[in-house]
Amino acid sequence: MSNRASHTTRFETAEHILPGHPDKLCDAAVDAIVDYVRGMFPDGQCGLEAAAIFGSIHLTGRIAANVLTRFHLDVPKLVRGVYRSAGYGLDAAGHLWGPDPGQLEITTQFCLGDFEPGEQENRHLSDDQAICTGYANANPDTDHLPPAHWLARRVARNLFDLRLAKGAGQVGPDGKVLISIETDGRAWKPVRASISLNHHEESDWLLLRHIAEEALETACGDLPVPPLVLNGAGMFVAGGPNGDNGLAGKKLVVDAYGPTVPIGGGAWSGKDLHKVDRLGGLLARSLAKTAVLTGLCDEALVTLEYTPGCDRPTGISARLDGAEYGEGLLEKLGGFEVGNQAVWAQYVAWKGSLVELARWGHQLPETPWEDGAQSGGKFRGGVPRYGTGSAYVEA
User: Fold this and answer.
1) Is there a single domain that holds both residue 295 and residue 206?
2) Which domain-ending residue is among 198, 214, 243?
3) I need a surface site. Which of 86, 259, 295, 373 has the fewest CB within 10 A?
4) pLDDT tens for residues 102-142?
5) Distance between the two ends of the chain, CA-based, in angstroms?
6) Does the pLDDT at position 387 exceed 90?
7) Largest CA distance in the chain
8) What CATH number does the domain containing 97 carry?
9) What sign results for the dihedral spanned by CA atoms 52, 265, 35, 109?
10) 195 and 69 within one domain
11) 121 Cβ contact partners less than 8 Å away, ≥ 6 residues apart
12) Strand, helix or coil at 274?
């Protein structure tokens, strides 16, 4: 064992879900609408929810922008597109995975129209309370995310890609991944994996096993591949909204950093980049990542507090390698700008897909809150990895 072996070892577990999961269908559906509105009206306001079951989905919320009364929003086209891109409908082998996007019953109850008097002028003010957390560690190999959380996402993305490449006619759109790791706080290794794949009654179980194993092995790379349990509950033929209710904003832990990091509580999907739940969550991540990239710490947890009517966080706290910081964190980071309007102005120019963030993580590269984090400093110490053999080692 290395000198890190004296640290107490512990287990951490995280999950991720495939785009065909009913909750992620709802997240992606509302974010598809937000994407479309912000493409037409960068300052547009969206606060949306969705619920899905069987072949129906209901969407509610507020959509506001200038001249919106003369704007045509084709909600059915956007929602059906989300279902299709998640894998529903006919696949390449001609198998129909339901619910059929073309037969969806789509209902809406929107507060839709131009900005009300004073509504646009006060967009820089928080319209609600929010507690937002951001986390980062000094390990670039896991994108500065908790390793179990990072690995679960990688496995899920591999499963999605392999379904398209090899699973036509056999593997359905829904699925779940659960990964457990052992860590001493720095070095880590995967120790258990559970994958649940949607299928039909005549699916080739050997093919399902091969796809699951390949997804796991590819995600692990040079890490040890843990034992895998596939479809531990047995048959998984009722997938997506045909098997469970779906709700937007239900997978908050999946969206954030996994269960080992506290979450604030507000959903991100369905909200424009001005809404403090989303804006504050992304800002907190940027602050935490900047803290580790500039060498202030190896691990950062930043918490931002917003109260109704505020134009910036009303409270800032941070835990850097266990030491507590308050507003002084901003000075240490070189005068980081945290005003609502200034942060929004940095984020609004980003033209990427909120649907992709909803499906694969809101901390994806090439976003302003990730790439905009300062990187002038060096990491303190080496980046630990788990190597071959039976001991924790550091790179």
Assistant:
1) no
2) 243
3) 295
4) 999 999 999 999 999 989 999 999 999 999 999 999 999 99
5) 14
6) no
7) 68
8) 3.30.300.10
9) positive
10) no
11) none
12) coil
